Amino acid sequence: MIKNKAIVFIKKDGFEYHDSAQSKSVNFIFQPNIIQDLEVIDKDQLKLAVKSFVEANKLAPANILYIIADSIIFEKTFALTAETNKDIEIQKFLENIPFEYVIYKLIDGQKDYKVLAINKELYGGFKLSFESVGFKVLGIIPQSSLGELYRNNQSLNSDIVKYVLSRFELLQKQGFTQEEIKSTTQSSDNEDLINAKKTPSPLNKYRLPLLLSLFVIVASILSFAVYIRYTQKSKASPVPSTILAPPIASPTPTIQETPSSTPSASPT
């Protein structure tokens, strides 16, 4: 069983690691080929980098609580009204965050509510990397969970470390636990479509027999119509017999002799 406790304070360009057993803090700088703009570029390289970090600093396995700086959290406050639909408002907010997958934390108030969101893959990448070398990750909390006194600090100091270690179990309950939800309208449409597929219409089982019967009837009518038309045409138009016309006698031509002409004058 792991008894050692550790705090990892995640910032934009890296994280600070504090080990309670050794009472020391060390820094891990994000390399652009591994993590850039809070996006995990290469998960395998991140695992190797964390392993090298643990070995180089001789860190013993520990129960880790992540704290993510307020400066890299996406946050929005919504007013509570009679027309408020939390699910729709939260979904619209999450859709505008430039990460494919997010986890968020909902903080309810009397007149409003606040949504805090972070990149799920960043947290998941660190969790997988540390657990692969024997550590146990207990969760991730926003810096604001430490109260107004420490929410503006840019790094870990002895006061923050003491505060977190003394409230270690209590702070775990204030983490990002909710994953991005589906749109209410889209989910409703999908459920209706699934239910429609699961529940067949009572007419469906009669549809095919009806179509086959209709096809047979139409084919029979067309065949009968063609038969009647062909029969009537055969009776009305018999093949005519050949009639030979009698030969016509041609008159025999007469030959008339032309009388010889008498010369009218003799040459002198």
Write up this protein:
The protein is α+β, with helices and mostly antiparallel strands. The chain has a domain of 177 residues: Nucleotidyltransferase, domain 5. It has seven helices and eleven strands. Strands 3-2-1-6-10 form a five-stranded mixed β-sheet, with helices on both faces. A hairpin with a 3-residue loop joins strand 8 and strand 9. The longest helix has 33 residues. It is elongated, with a radius of gyration of 49 Å. The C terminus is likely disordered.
Summary keywords:
single chain; 268 residues; alpha+beta; 4-stranded antiparallel β-sheet; 7 helices; 11 strands; elongated
Secondary structure: elements and pairs:
Blueprint: E1 5-10, E2 14-19, E3 24-29, E4 35-36, E5 39-40, H1 43-56, E6 63-68, E7 74-79, H2 86-95, E8 102-108, E9 112-119, H3 120-131, E10 136-142, H4 158-166, H5 168-172, E11 178-179, H6 184-198, H7 204-236
Parallel strand pairs: 1-6, 6-10
Antiparallel strand pairs: 1-2, 2-3, 4-5, 7-9, 8-9, 8-11
Helix pairs in contact: 1-3
